[in-house]
Design a protein that fits this description.
Alpha/beta knot; about 230 residues; alpha/beta; 8-stranded parallel sheet; 13 strands; Ribosomal Protein L25, Chain P
């Protein structure tokens, strides 16, 4: 199945018109014709099965045959992560995290952060592409970049974790994940978290966890966390 995306399609529609880049792909690349079926998600959990009524150079006119409410994950995973110096590495993280499974991603500015701005338009395109690639129907939210302390103060997940590289007797994340709950994990920049940041997180009920013996890049650590939560919730 090939999945398309439109934020405007909803369960109240009987007919729907695609006239954006998805239409261009359907018309010029895939060469779809009248009576062909396609599947569209609105990124809000719905999968729409549609049939093409008419198609021309300007638009694809669809009739919605049925809509299905789908659940990608039976848990919530929120990741707070410091953007990497190289934007391509952070984009790679966003793509892979969404393909594996994540509810939201919040870029954080930490003491050792080397990047404090992001191209959200490009991140949105990457997010949509990753959602379609992995045949998911929820589009994870890439939230506005925030200061570390503001993120910690605003988080209300049931379970909260901080992963860092400093030597300490910590439990491995994979062994303490609680299934089917709302969890939040924070990952620092290339230079790591400062002692003050770690203490602040601990005082805010974050549990220090290990991701293993290997020292991981920021973006790799984020992907590893996503996979651990996926595996633990199977």
């Amino acid at each position: 199945m090939k999945l398309f995306y439109s934020s405007e399609i909803n369960t109240k529609n009987e007919d729907f018109i695609l006239d954006n880049s998805e239409h261009t792909h359907i018309h010029k690349v895939l060469r779809k014709k009248a009576d062909d079926k396609i599947h569209i998600t609105n990124g809000k959990g719905y999968l729409f099965e549609c049939i093409i009524k008419t198609i021309d150079s300007k638009s694809t006119n669809l009739k919605i045959l049925k809509s299905i409410r789908k659940s990608n994950m039976d848990y919530d995973l929120h990741i707070g992560i410091a953007p990497t110096k190289k934007m391509s590495r952070f984009e790679w993280f966003v793509e892979k995290a969404i393909e594996i499974g994540v509810t939201s991603i919040t870029p954080m500015i930490c003491s050792y952060s080397e990047r404090k701005s992001l191209n959200y338009s490009r991140l949105e395109k990457i997010s949509i592409s990753a959602m379609k690639q992995s045949l998911q129907t929820y589009l994870p939210e890439i939230k506005p970049i925030v200061e570390f302390k503001d993120y910690i103060k605003s988080n209300n997940s049931d379970y909260k974790y901080i992963a860092h590289c400093k030597k300490s007797n910590t439990e491995h994340l994979s062994g303490i994940i609680v299934k089917k709950n709302s969890s939040n994990i924070i990952i620092g920049p290339e230079g790591g978290f400062t002692n003050k940041e770690i203490s602040f997180a601990i005082d805010s009920d974050y549990k220090v966890v290990s991701l293993g013996n290997n020292r991981l890049r920021t973006e790799t650590a984020g992907v590893v966390c996503c996979q651990m939560f996926l595996d633990s919730n199977k």
